[in-house]
């Protein structure tokens, strides 16, 4: 059996889903050493770590504009057209997220809020032996839409010091201002503190392995970060009318990411669960990454059986999954029951991969139950809110004694006096 079946009580008693993806002290110690060395030695440390971890001996870190253009031209025209269309979808979706500044005046007190883009951000894109152009589009385009002027990308090279042309083409397509062949914790350190070649940024976004995630955790405060991303997750809610082949395919789509990925099915039908198990075995036979998927299913996956759909929603909100698929009749009817999920995919013809590549929604999503308080990456992640206050003299005088009363209640006399002094001609009255 590739994936075990539980009741929810049994599932909660297992260790599945309880591992903290950012609590490995041994790796944390290594990450701290890397960060400190990059801060101290700059580019020299980056060259050394690239040779040590990626096996590549580099003579330069930045990828030239000419290289980006060449990579863009090398991509097959049909695929380039698809990439351009996907980028357009992402841009349209994220433009809907933009906010307008606002102002409100009431009896001489004017307040308002401005939205200011960050000046420089860094996007980390996993790489090395694989290419993730979609991650480039998902991190760079929202920053560009938000108005960020400097958007750099760091991605690890292969053993020859090269970056996959698809990744470079996506960076060119999305409008990244610079791309660097640097990976791992050393890339995060470089973007957080700056080196001779890599500029310091204000915020770092994008997924990565444990080293990248722990590095982001360590540099937070020096720079902003989007989230601490753990292994990918999917929860599929299905009734007895769902198609077992669809469910199996979608569970495998997450399982193939990583042995630590969490594919979970919640169903009211034991018969469906057994059919899904059969489909998984069938589809695993010719899946290129079947060993990764099989490990994920066996060690992290679960099928959870419940009596009714009403029993589902407390479970879903407790799991707070990165991806939630509703393959049930009248799925829209239950959407309001979902309060904690990174992205919700409604209906049997809305696979999670649609959100990964095509819908325009962002696939950088909270994991590890963080959907209880966090959201998908979006334009808000690249914007600061700045409050503005203006007060007329007569308006302040009308409110001065009230403000002073609140300040004195907190024991902050200087706060009280700073207001009262503007309405008193005799400073001796400030103690009144």
Could you explain the architecture of this structure?
Helix content is 43%, strand content 16%. Strand 6, helix 7 and strand 7 form a beta-alpha-beta unit. Helix 2 crosses helix 8, helix 6 runs parallel beside helix 7 and helix 10 packs across helix 11. The protein has 3 domains: 147 residues, Rossmann fold (3-Layer(aba) Sandwich); 187 residues, Nitrogenase molybdenum iron protein domain (Rossmann fold, 3-Layer(aba) Sandwich), CATH 3.40.50.1980; 40 residues, no CATH class. The strands form 3 sheets. It has a 6-stranded parallel β-sheet with strand order 1-12-11-10-13-14, sandwiched between helices. By secondary structure, the protein is α/β, with parallel strands linked by helices.
What does the secondary structure layout of this molecule look like, with pairings?
Elements: E1 5-7, H1 8-13, H2 25-41, H3 43-54, E2 62-63, H4 65-74, H5 77-95, E3 102-106, E4 109-117, E5 120-124, H6 133-146, E6 150-154, H7 165-174, E7 178-180, H8 184-193, E8 203-205, H9 210-219, E9 224-225, E10 233-238, H10 244-255, E11 262-267, H11 270-284, H12 290-299, E12 302-305, H13 312-319, E13 323-327, E14 343-346, H14 352-357, E15 383-391, H15 393-409, H16 413-420
Parallel strand pairs: 1-12, 5-6, 5-8, 6-7, 8-9, 10-11, 10-13, 11-12, 13-14
Antiparallel strand pairs: 2-7, 3-4, 4-15
Helix pairs in contact: 2-3, 2-8, 2-9, 3-8, 4-7, 5-6, 5-7, 6-7, 8-9, 10-11, 10-12, 15-16
């Amino acid at each position: 059996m590739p994936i075990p079946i539980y009741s929810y009580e049994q599932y909660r008693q297992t260790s599945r889903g309880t591992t903290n993806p950012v609590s490995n002290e041994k790796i944390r110690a290594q990450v701290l050493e890397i960060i400190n060395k990059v801060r101290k030695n700059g580019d020299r440390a980056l060259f050394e770590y690239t040779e040590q971890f990626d096996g590549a001996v580099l003579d330069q870190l930045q990828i030239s504009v000419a290289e980006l253009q060449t990579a863009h031209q090398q991509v097959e025209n049909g695929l380039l057209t698809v990439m351009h269309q996907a980028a357009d979808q992402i841009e349209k979706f994220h433009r809907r997220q933009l906010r307008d500044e606002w102002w409100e005046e009431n009896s001489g007190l004017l307040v308002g809020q401005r939205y200011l883009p960050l000046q420089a951000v860094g996007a980390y894109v996993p790489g090395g032996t694989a290419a993730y152009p979609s991650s480039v589009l998902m991190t760079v385009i929202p920053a560009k839409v938000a108005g960020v002027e400097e958007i750099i990308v760091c991605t690890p090279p292969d053993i020859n010091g090269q970056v996959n042309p698809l990744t470079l083409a996506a960076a060119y397509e999305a409008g990244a201002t610079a791309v660097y062949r640097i990976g791992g914790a050393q890339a995060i350190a470089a973007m957080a503190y700056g080196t001779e070649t890599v500029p310091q940024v204000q915020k770092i976004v994008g997924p990565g392995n444990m080293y990248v995630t722990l590095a982001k955790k360590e540099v937070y405060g020096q720079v902003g970060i989007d989230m601490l991303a753990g292994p990918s997750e999917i929860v599929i809610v299905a009734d007895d009318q769902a198609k077992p082949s669809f469910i199996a395919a979608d569970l495998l789509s997450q399982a193939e990411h990583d042995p630590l990925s969490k594919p979970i099915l919640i169903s009211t039908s034991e018969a469906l669960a057994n059919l899904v198990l059969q489909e998984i075995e069938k589809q695993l036979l010719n899946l290129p990454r079947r060993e990764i998927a099989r490990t994920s299913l066996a060690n992290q996956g679960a099928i959870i059986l419940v009596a009714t759909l009403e029993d589902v929603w407390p479970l879903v909100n407790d799991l707070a999954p990165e991806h939630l698929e509703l393959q049930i009749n009248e799925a829209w009817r239950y959407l309001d029951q979902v309060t904690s999920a990174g992205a919700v995919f409604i209906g049997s013809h809305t696979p999670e991969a649609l959100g990964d590549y095509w819908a325009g929604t962002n696939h950088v999503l909270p994991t590890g139950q963080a959907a209880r308080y966090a959201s998908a990456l979006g334009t808000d992640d690249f914007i600061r809110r700045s409050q503005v206050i203006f007060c007329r003299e007569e308006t302040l005088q009308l409110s001065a004694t009230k403000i002073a009363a609140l300040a004195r209640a907190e024991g902050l006399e200087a706060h009280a006096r700073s207001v009262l002094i503007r309405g008193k001609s005799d400073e001796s009255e400030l103690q009144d």
